[in-house]
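User: For my dataset I need records formatted as: sequence, then structure tokens, nothing else. Please produce one.
Assistant:
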Amino acid sequence: MRLYRALACLALAAYAPFALLRSLAGGRRLGDIAGRLGRRPYPDLSGGIWIHAVSVGELGVARNLLRAIRRRIPRVPVGISVTTAAGLDLAARTLSGEASIFAFPFELQGPVDRALARTRPALIVLAETEIWPLFLERAAGLGIPIALVNGRISPRSFARYRLAGRLLAPSLSRIALFAMQSKEDGSRIAQLGAQPERVLHLGNIKYDLPESPRFPDGERLARAAAGRPVLVAGSTGEGEETLVLDAWSRLAERPLLVLAPRRPERFDEVARICESRGFRVLRRSASDSPLARDSSVDVYLLDSIGELAAMYGEAVLAFVGGSLVDTGGQNPIEAWAAGVPVIAGPHMENFREIAARGEALGILQRAADPGQLSDRIARALSDPKETSRLGEEAARFVAESRGAAEATAAAVLALAPALSDLRASAP
């Protein structure tokens, strides 16, 4: 562990200048550096639960699990830590009334020890596959049970973890419960060194998402669409918007295209890409834009955080990003829950089981390139009755797949006897 600590310090020192330059150049925001160094106040979670979610995607897991826990123990103290700037912004806006929000500490002894000493949780829950050896060692040393929930290990991640070999096993031994999404994920974590008796297959908590509110900018969106169907390209990655625009441009009758880049740091860049190709862009954030009253908009840019699920409710068809570029794909469940069928590119490794189930039901189609994507869009829009039927099937599939949050809440609460006592005494 001494060698690991030294390497962690060196890695942070080497990464810091790069991160700063990238932020100054308009790349990813740095996030709450002071908080990650343990220089901000921490919530007192004595007898309560610390849930860690890396960023926006994992916050959905944290939110669903938090609400399942609250149904069992309404008054238990809960804190949610987040790593990224976008995640912190979204957590503060949507969950601050339900939990304390704070920055996850850097993997350094000082920040980790300060965070644990000040929060004093009875239980720590890590959303998806967050394995920080020093954090796990210090928490386990204090006798705090740790659960990893909604765990998944893609083939690419599995190969990387296997390179760590015996170095990973001690960290996994400190985790009391692995609530994995599938049997395949459970098998992989066991092969990496998790004790098999601690591994459960409880399903995907992301299916337990709440009903989305109406999209707040729906009136402007409807005016911009002017009767055209709405196509949402959600959580797109770098280089992918160009591919989507290529596909959309080939359509004989173009729907209103909504682009929702995954990273907020890229909002301006994506607007410039669209405008450089001569497309008229209405931005969600530009309330005073003259295009707000114009029906000749080509692209609506969703340059906001936390509104994509609501936006899917305005669409007839969705493309999920990160899949035409090789980044492993993004989650189609929000679109399905809104009753919208999905098209994805060839790269859905991060959601392989979900994508396979969607393909089997016909609610997810694959497109290998912009040409095929254009064909898939054209076919779906030419048969609105069938597309609507597939949307209904998608919503039904999500409804029938719920339940992982409740099962996971029951499993993690059983790890801490004090929490079980609170449940027994809850009115």
